[in-house]
Amino acid sequence: MSVITLSNIRKTYPLGKQEVVAVKDASFSIEKGEFAAVSGPSGSGKSTILNMIGLIDIPSAGSININGIDVYKGVNLEDAQVQDGRWASDPKDKKKRRTSIPSKLDKRITGLRRSHIGFIFQTFNLIPVLNVYENVEFQLLLNSKGQDAKCPVDDFSKKQKEEWVNYLIERVGLSDWKTHKPSELSGGQRQRVAIARALVTKAPVILADEPTANLDSANSKQILSLMKQLNNDPELQTTFIFSTHDARIVKMCDHVVHLLDGNIINDEHKAGSDIYGEE
Predict the structure, then answer these.
(1) Three-state SS string across the chain, please?
(2) pLDDT (tens digit, 0 to 9) for every residue of the chain, 279 residues total?
(3) Rounded Cα–Cα distance for residues 171 and 180 (Å)
(4) What is the pTM of this model?
């Protein structure tokens, strides 16, 4: 079963009077439970694709399907223009231009991000005034509106939510650190908090943009081994998608989409290693 399907995705950016094509008609699917990567050199378009899967960026053309939901259904992306957060549904007619993304689409995207996507960032992005437990719990305190935003944990009782947060903190090995704030943690420990936070809504897909970029080799090995264990955990049933040029992460993945200059040059399915750095 596909949890992510991209069909003829194209992304362009204006550069002065010219147009830069960052992603060129990309099509691929990610199946449930895969440990997958979008890989390529700098400038290949891998982060752009990850941002579009994560609904942080809007494609210029094509369609994205997340867990059976057509994200941009009813929206003609080719006739729209999105730049610096401004949405022009008719770029040639100033009277018809919008100053923001249409409300209905914005609500759909926001809801899907909350319910279907978890994020693990290079720079961790933890809230500095909150401790480990509070950083992981924070997602559960946000109100959900609409069916697209509903998560399995929304129906949990207060006690069940507490147990779930504590389970994830234990699962990432930070039970003894849950009252500590980010400033009191190492880089590897902060990344573990970020992983637990990404998992807390039981989102079916976790996106990780160069997750080892700010870690040394020892911490990188620990973090990737942990992610692989979580990927294999039947309680979580989580699909991981990485944006990376790290060959050691690529070797761990069972599905790799190889990019070059915005083009998919190989959509590879293979046996992935369980160990980061294994030759």
Answers:
(1) CEEEEEEEEEEEEEECCEEEEEEEEEEEEEECCCEEEEECCCCCCHHHHHHHHCCCCCCCEEEEEECCEECCCCCCHHHCEEECCEEECCCCCHHHCCCCCCHHHHHHHHHHHHHHEEEECCCCCCCCCCCHHHHHHHHHHCCCCCHHHCCHHHHCCHHHHHHHHHHHHHHCCCHHHCCCCHHHCCHHHHHHHHHHHHHCCCCCEEEEECCCCCCCHHHHHHHHHHHHHHHCCCCCCCEEEEEECCHHHHHHCCEEEEEECCEEEEEEECCCCCCCCCC
(2) 899 999 999 999 888 888 899 999 999 999 999 999 999 999 999 999 999 999 999 999 999 999 999 999 878 787 666 554 455 555 555 555 454 677 788 888 988 998 999 999 988 999 999 999 999 999 898 866 665 667 888 889 999 999 999 999 999 999 999 999 999 999 999 999 999 999 999 999 999 999 988 889 999 999 999 999 999 998 888 999 999 999 999 999 999 999 999 999 999 999 999 988 865
(3) 17
(4) 0.90
**Cα radius of gyration (the chain):** 19
Written as one letter, the residue type at 126 is L
Q: Evaluate whether 154 touches 221 at the Cβ level (below 8 Å).
A: no
Calpha distance 150→148 (Å, rounded):
6
- C-alpha dihedral over 64, 70, 74, 80, to 10 degrees? -20
Give the integer Cα–Cα distance in Å for 48 and 257: 13
Distance CA 78, CA 70 (A): 16
